[in-house]
Design brief:
The radius of gyration is 21 Å and the shape is elongated. Helix 1 packs across helix 3. It starts with a helix and ends with a helix. The longest helix has 20 residues. The protein is an all-alpha fold. The chain is 86% helix and 0% strand. The mean pLDDT is 82. The chain has 5 helices and no strands. It has one domain.
Length: 80
């Protein structure tokens, strides 16, 4: 999720800076952003995420879920 957010922010800032170079103010550029732009930028950010990044994210998520599961807690309690 962090990687997608970073990619989205990068894309948004690049487009704002490009528009500013074209002579529009940043405020005008921000006001002109619509839902379609957000969806397209989010989809592009998703496409830029590598498979290894997704795999590491899922591994972290599943690892934390395993640690928080009741069966793991019970096993640890029985060993003490």
């Amino acid at each position: 999720m962090e990687a997608i957010k970073r990619q989205y922010r990068k894309s948004l800032l690049q487009s704002l800076l490009f528009e500013e170079e074209e002579g529009r103010s940043i405020i005008e550029c921000v006001k002109s952003i619509n839902i379609k732009d957000v969806v397209y930028k989010t989809a592009a950010a998703w496409e830029d995420i590598s498979a290894s990044t997704l795999q590491r994210s899922w591994n972290k998520l599943l690892c934390c879920a395993d640690e928080a599961s009741p069966s793991t807690t019970n096993t640890t309690d029985q060993e003490n």
